[in-house]
Amino acid sequence: MDATDESSTTAVCIRLRRNGPLVLTGPVNLVREDGSLLREADSMALCRCGASREAPFCDGSHRVTVFRDD
Ligand code: FES
Question: Which three-class secondary structure string do you get for 11-25?
Fold first, then answer.
């Protein structure tokens, strides 16, 4: 499958984790703007707090920065 192929029929679940990342359960392909594949995985956590040193992935820094999503 091409990294930019968005025709997959497999459901992807996206969960907002309270005070934490977006957790995607798939399979999931994360694709860069140019269409190249950044990561292919069964699940991944994406940063919402802006503090991750591994952006766009969550590295747990939201716990240190005490991110709140209220
Ligand atoms: S949400 Fe976890 S590091 Fe940002």
Answer: CCEEEECCCCCEEEE
Alpha carbon of 3 to ligand 1 centroid (Å):
25
44 lines ligand 1 (CB under 6 A): no
Model pLDDT for residues 6-39, shown as the tens digit of each residue: 565 679 999 999 999 999 999 999 999 999 999 9
Measured by CA distance, the residue closest to atom 2 of ligand 1 is 58
62 lines ligand 1 (CB under 6 A): yes
Ligand 1 atom nearest the C-alpha of 59 is: 3
Beta bridge partners of 43: 25
Per-residue model confidence as pLDDT tens digits over 48-66: 999 999 999 999 999 999 8
Query: Helix and strand tally (H, E) in the chain?
Result: 1, 3
